[in-house]
Amino acid sequence: MKKNGYPSAGLHGRVVHDIGARIVSGQIPPGDTLPSEGELAETYGASRSAIREAVKVLAAKGLVEPRRRSGTRVRPREAWNLLDPDILGWHSPEALIPSFRRDLVELRWAIEPAAAELAARRSQPEDRALIQEALDEMEKAGEDPRAFYSADVRFHLAVFAASRNALIERLSTILGPLLTMSFQAQARRNRAFPLAVGDHRAVYEAIAAGDARAARKAMQFIMNQSARELEAASPEAAIAADVPA
């Protein structure tokens, strides 16, 4: 999966990622003011110009608002660009607030069944081969969470590509990190990995058969399972009750 986030190489990139991660994690909460430009330069061993550029990057992501005289203040969460790949990556799955977990499920519900239906109608042999390859990797992963989630993300991204919808495919740069976050938060608490493989195989078989209705229903089943697993990880979110059965 291609990553479109801000480069982390070099001192300037490390400053962006370190401050950004501290803001998103709540270590620097909304309303707080960042240390002065001089203090940040000393902390990171960077020039003032590098610090200014890093702050500009964070401001473009909606995280901070530089103000003359009063300093750079962290903006409310509502102002953040939550679909920015870096901001998504700076979230810890364990620390996701309930409303964001719910929003994540609802976004997937809105897009993924439709993508599966389109894939059944439009996919080409090479598209289906990529879905099959990811499915095989899920099966080979067994109970290894890291390998399983990696293959699981590839499966869903392959379905997006197989939809042959340019906008859905472009959304992959956003949905990829969201899927990774979702799977890590779910932690498959309620169900064994082999059962999840079977659910995904049903999606693949419907797409391969060109059965659009079955593909949509099979993906809807996965969405409901994801909602239940996320709810198990965060009961206060009450996610599963808000998505269609």
From TrEMBL:
Molecular function (Gene Ontology), one example: DNA-binding transcription factor activity
Top-rank taxon: Bacteria
Keywords: DNA-binding, Transcription, Transcription regulation
Domain named HTH gntR-type: residues: 9-77
PROSITE patterns from the UniProt entry: HTH_GNTR
Signal peptide extent: none
Keyword Oxidoreductase in annotation: no
CDD domains: WHTH_GntR (cd07377)
KW ATP-binding (keyword) present: no
PANTHER family assigned to the protein according to its UniProt record, in alphabetical order: GNTR FAMILY REGULATORY PROTEIN (PTHR43537:SF44), TRANSCRIPTIONAL REGULATOR, GNTR FAMILY (PTHR43537)
Protein name: HTH gntR-type domain-containing protein
Lineage per the UniProt record: Bacteria, Pseudomonadati, Pseudomonadota, Alphaproteobacteria, Rhodospirillales
